[in-house]
Design goal:
This protein is mainly alpha-helical and 242 residues long. It folds into 2 domains: 93 residues; 112 residues, no CATH class. Helix content is 47%, strand content 9%. It has a two-stranded antiparallel sheet with strand order 1-2. It has a two-stranded antiparallel ribbon with strand order 3-4. A hairpin with a 2-residue loop joins strand 3 and strand 4. Helix 4 packs parallel to helix 7. The longest helix has 18 residues. It starts with a helix and ends with a helix.
């Protein structure tokens, strides 16, 4: 698909979106079978892109399901979006939408953006609120199952304190076994529980520390991956300083 799109762009049959990096046109992102196409809102480009996708179907023997695809207009009139969606045979979408599990266009500062994560934690708690689990079993549950759920979000966004508080409360409730709705006194401070076992804790993951560590990795990638497009776009917009 990449080669077909590049050839079509070079022949001026498709017009992509100009990014901040001079001389680079932003046209598509692809990972496995998840693909985002960036086009200017014109019938000419859209028709040619649909032809490219049909050619990909013939070459790969894989059929593209346009009914499961969405067309999202950014600063484009509703009438034009509806016309282009009808041309493609796909639905009209809107921001935010999910790509590789991340809600693109969502405001990570809002609690609503984190609702799916909080709901997943609550569902895990409901499914595991068995009184037969020992404390050690609940520690394993919180450490190995519940603590890994939001890592894709935490690798991308700064988790608000209110969200961390809600998630930690769910984890605390799971450890204290509130399955019958009763309140129980916490015998050990949560900060101690999150310490490594060699320091007297239970080894439960500290999500706040994990969030900072995952975000810090982007600084390392920024300094080590000089040729990637996302780095060039950041430098073009904000500059590069030591």
């Amino acid at each position: 698909m990449h080669l077909l799109i590049a050839k079509t762009v070079n022949s001026k049959k498709i017009e992509g979106i100009d990014c901040l990096v001079p001389g680079i046109s932003f046209l598509h992102l692809q990972f496995a079978d998840d693909t985002i196409l960036f086009l200017r809102p014109g019938v000419f480009s859209m028709s040619n892109m649909k032809c490219v996708l049909r050619c990909c179907e013939v070459c790969s023997s894989l059929k593209i399901n346009f009914k499961k695809s969405s067309l999202i207009g950014i600063n484009v009139g509703t009438d034009r979006v509806e016309g282009l969606a009808k041309l493609c045979g796909c639905d009209i979408g809107s921001l935010p939408f999910k790509y590789l599990g991340i809600p693109l266009g969502a405001d990570p500062r809002l609690l609503a953006s984190w609702a799916p994560i909080i709901d997943r934690f609550a569902q895990k708690l409901t499914g595991w609120k068995s009184r037969t689990l020992t404390f050690a079993g609940r520690v394993v549950l919180v450490s190995s199952v519940m603590s890994v759920l939001p890592l894709n979000y935490m690798s991308t966004f700064v988790v608000p304190k209110s969200v961390l508080a809600k998630i930690d409360q769910i984890r605390k409730n799971s450890l204290r076994d509130f399955s019958n709705g009763s309140r129980k006194i916490a015998r050990v401070n949560w900060g101690v529980i999150c310490k490594p076992k060699k320091f007297g804790g239970a080894g439960v993951l500290n999500l706040n520390v994990k969030n900072k560590a995952l975000l810090a990795k982007w600084i390392w990638r920024f300094n080590s991956e000089q040729a990637v497009l996302w780095r060039k776009m950041i430098v073009a917009k904000y500059g590069e300083s030591e």
